[in-house]
Every structure is written in C-alpha cells, then in structure tokens.
Design a protein that fits this description.
This protein has a six-stranded mixed β-sheet with strand order 6-7-8-3-9-10, with helices on both faces. The model has no long low-confidence stretch (mean pLDDT 93). By secondary structure, the chain is of the alpha/beta class. It contains nine helices and twelve strands.
Length: 257
C-alpha cells in the first residue's frame, strides 16, 4: 500500500531524514514515534510530496509519487496537520465539501453523489448534528472530528495524521484515537500517524516505527519494539513495561537518565 525506499530529506544544509525505508500494508495502523526534532512530521510531508525528497522513492501501491499529479495524490492520500485552521465564517458542512475537490473539475458543481459521501462522512464521525456550526466555535475534539470528516469525504486509501491528539485533553485524545481505529476497522483504511504518547502508540497501532535523528531505529509490532532498552536508548528515560495476558505493552515512565 505504502512503501518508502531510502527516502532522504534536507532542509538547506541540514539533513533531517536519512535513508528512511519502511512499508505499510493495506489496512494497517502504523504510528511513528520518536523524540522532538527526530523528523517524524517531515516524513509525513515527504510521503505527500509537500516537501521534496533529496533522494529515494515513495510508492503508493504500484505508483511512484513523482509520477502522479497533485490531484491523483489527493485521491489516494489525505493528511491532517498538527494545527488546522479555517475561515471564521466556515461551517462544518462547508469544510467537508473541500474533501470532494480532488474528485471534481474546477468548473463542476457538487452532485448527489458528492452530497451522499459528505453525509456519510459527517455521520461516521458523529459530526452530522454540528453541520451548521462554525468550525472555529467547536471544541478541540469536535474540530478534530470535523477535519476527519473532511478527510473521509476525500475517500482516500491512506490517512496520514500528524499528532492528531495535540492540544486535546485526555478524554478527547482517546475519543479521537478510538474514532481513527473504528475508521480503520470498518473501512479498511490504512493509517499512518505521528504520536508522542507511547501508550497510545502501543494501544492503537498494528506496528510502531521508532525514529531517531531521521533514521529508523526499530519497526515492528508494539510488543517487539517498545522495550525498556529501546526506550532508554531513544528517549533517555527508564521505564517499567507491563504486559498482561499477551496484551500490548503498557509503559510507565520512572525517571530521566
């Protein structure tokens, strides 16, 4: 579904992502974790083409990213950034219409099929009752769901999320992640997301990709990757790892080294 081969990205004279390779299978949820400044968000931008790669290749299915038009990429991928903004007079329903733009010629109006898909996206995210609300007036969790509805209206095969729980309280963090997992399960939607919380990555991911200084340090299931030794090496903290009945690891941070 998504394959990165030796992707490297440079900002001016600084190498941010180095020889980065991994593969995401159809229907998987993969979380990218790592310290601040390790290149996590840059990797997502490289996948979408928002930032050009210095070297390497990005494959979406059998297609190489550089062979696709912006419209084609938008039909395959949808990405939500850490902070999303909209005009102060834009309603939730108006926001969701933008998800249909990659499927329309600039001169064509929305048709019945577009409205059906928009309604489906609003209902699936639970935002149908907020359709007339202004986006800026929503709470953080509601706003994140409104943007997810827009992304779903795009009908992508792959959803990229850059720290989707940023600025949310604990309850809303779990609410958004539960919704993402539901979308993955019910739609077989492939999800790649950047997370900071190791326990969230453990709970909601099929695989975890650990990034350190722009390199893949480890990639595999949460049980394989989230070990005391690796967390100590990458984050510089001591932890206690709890595993019950073959469940995913539960990480308790003890102290900084």
């Amino acid at each position: 579904m998504l394959k990165l081969e030796s992707m490297s990205i440079r900002y001016e004279d600084k190498s941010v992502v180095r020889d980065f390779s991994f593969e995401v299978l159809p229907g998987e949820v993969v979380s990218i974790i790592g310290p601040n400044g390790s290149g996590k968000s840059t990797i997502l931008k490289g996948i979408t083409g928002l930032i050009p790669c210095e070297s390497g290749q990005v494959f979406i299915g059998e297609e190489e990213l550089r062979s696709l038009s912006i419209r084609d990429v938008s039909r395959l991928l949808s990405m939500l950034s850490q902070a999303n903004s909209s005009p102060t007079d834009m309603t939730v329903e108006e926001l969701v219409t933008f998800g249909r733009m990659p499927h329309k010629k600039w001169y064509k109006q929305l048709n019945d099929e577009d409205y059906r898909i928009m309604e489906w996206a609003l209902q699936l995210t639970g935002m149908d009752r907020y359709r007339e609300r202004l986006v800026y007036s929503l709470s953080g969790g509601e706003a994140q769901k409104a943007w997810l509805a827009m992304a779903l209206a795009q009908c992508p095969k792959i959803l990229l999320l850059d720290e989707p729980t940023t600025y949310l309280d604990i309850a809303h963090q779990l609410d958004v992640l539960e919704l993402v997992k539901t979308l993955n399960r019910e739609l077989q939607l492939t999800v790649v997301m950047v997370l900071h919380d190791l326990n969230h990555a453990s709970m909601y991911s099929d695989k975890v990709c650990v990034v350190k200084q722009g390199n893949v340090r480890a990639y595999g299931s949460p049980q394989e990757v989230l070990t005391r030794e690796l967390i100590r090496e990458v984050y510089g903290v001591e932890t206690d790892i709890e595993i019950k009945n073959n469940s995913n690891p539960r990480i308790h941070v003890l102290h900084k080294i």
